[in-house]
Amino acid sequence: MSIFSDVPQAPPVAVFKLTADFREDSHPQKVNLGVGAYRTDDCQPWVLPVVKKVERLIVEDNSLNHEYLPILGLPEFRSASSKVALGEDSSAIKENRVGGVQALGGTGALRIGAEFLRRWYNGVNNTATPVYVSAPTWENHNSVFADAGFKDIRPYHYWDAAKRGLDLAGLLDDLEKAPEHSIFVLHACAHNPTGTDPTPDEWKKIAEIMKRRNLFVFFDSAYQGFASGSLDKDAWAIRYFVSEGFELFVAQSFSKNFGLYNERVGNLTIVAKDNENLTRILSQMEKIVRTTWSNPPSQGARIVSKTLNCPELFAEWKGNVKTMADRVLLMRDQLKSKLQGLGTPGTWDHITQQIGMFSFTGLNPKQVEYMIKEKHVYLMASGRINMCGLTTKNIDYVAQSIHETVTKVQ
């Protein structure tokens, strides 16, 4: 008998299982709206033109080698990443109280931040501190903080299913009732999975309560620039909280806005009270990284760093990002208009009111099952669809499938 005989079979990761099922489907009109990655109008992955250009520059740069990077990562990548999140004119950067930790994607940034908070936030090894995540949220949020050792992970109100929008009253009430020093994971923009973000005025109400009640802010910023096409607009909430004097963490991902999904390029931006606190925080971050991945990989970080630190490449990248964002916005407009044209029951205004890669359609689990089994349109059980999976070639079929589903299945 194997010493591993008692190891249970883990359930598959839902989104990857959905993709596997899609691949096995032989239906000629099948559509995959589940995968969380950008696709062109030909439903193909897109290597950004600026990325191809920078890759050639890296190949031709004879000064580069394959030596280890510093434990905390490529310095010029870390600083440039934090500037993108906080803005070039950030007072926190000027006051030398901002630092970064290069991580393995946004997930790695979340995990390193969670590990540090579990060890050092509000008391050493404080596993009992409540961690709040939105209801619903990206499925990995719960697991990352649980695996980091937190024992009390709670949902906070976010999605109002009846009006298909933000439950601001419920969210503010949860902030008021949360124990002081609780940790709140906030989506900086393009909330996953709902695509519903607070307005600037709503963010101000959220910040006021969090500041008054000493709640810790941990932003997850996976879609900066990708959501609206504007880096500054998508970072508004982060920059407002910093301007209000918060100490906070920002987990940044460059998977979506650079198309570097398999390079795993992320950064944890730390905004501390002062440089002395920042120095001690980074010293502990270094210890955590050393026993986790020891040193980060260089290729993706160099691509991002060279792009962000060169004005011409930076401008080109912003153009590439806007190209992706504009295609998503176009698909939102077209899907809404086609559903309204078909007379599909219900309201579909939320499709264009939401922002970013995902739309929370409002389809229930039975309707999702019908879409997959009968129409061969694959989407998450929650009703979330990836707008990038829509193309000018399949959008009519998808709209007709949604119409049939909503009409037949309650």
Task: Walk me through what this model shows.
The structure is a single chain. It contains 17 helices and 13 strands. By secondary structure, it is an alpha/beta fold. Helix 8 links the parallel strand 7 and strand 8 (216-221). The chain is globular, with a radius of gyration of 22 Å.
What can be said about this structure in brief?
With 410 residues, the protein is α/β, with parallel strands linked by helices. It has helices at 14-24, 49-59, 75-86, 91-94, 105-120, 140-147, 168-177, 200-212, 231-234, 236-243, 255-258, 275-290, 299-308, 311-342, 350-353, 365-375, 395-408; strands at residues 31-32, 98-104, 131-135, 153-157, 159-160, 165-166, 183-187, 216-221, 248-253, 265-271, 358-360, 377-378, 384-386.
Task: Give the SSE map.
Layout: H1 14-24, E1 31-32, H2 49-59, H3 75-86, H4 91-94, E2 98-104, H5 105-120, E3 131-135, H6 140-147, E4 153-157, E5 159-160, E6 165-166, H7 168-177, E7 183-187, H8 200-212, E8 216-221, H9 231-234, H10 236-243, E9 248-253, H11 255-258, E10 265-271, H12 275-290, H13 299-308, H14 311-342, H15 350-353, E11 358-360, H16 365-375, E12 377-378, E13 384-386, H17 395-408
Parallel strand pairs: 1-12, 3-4, 3-7, 7-8, 8-9
Antiparallel strand pairs: 2-10, 5-6, 9-10, 11-13
Helix pairs in contact: 2-13, 2-14, 3-13, 5-6, 5-12, 7-8, 8-10, 14-17, 16-17
Give the key terms.
7-stranded mixed sheet; 13% strand; 410 residues; single chain; two-stranded parallel ribbon; 17 helices; alpha/beta; globular
